[in-house]
Amino acid sequence: MKPLLIISHVANSHPDYLCEYLERRQLPYQVFTTQSDAPLPAAGQFAGLVLLGAPLSVNSGLDWIREEMALIRDCVAREVPVLGICFGSQLISKAFGGLVFTAPAMQIGWHPVTTTPQCRALFGDLSMPEQFTAFEWHEETFTLPNGAIPLFNGGCVGNQGFQYKSCLAVQFHPEVTEAMVRDWVDQYETCVEKPTICRQDREAILQDVAQKLAAMRVVSDKLFDWWIGQTGKDQ
Question: Among 67, 195, 196, 212, which lies 20 to 30 A Cα-Cα from 32?
Answer without folding.
Answer: 212
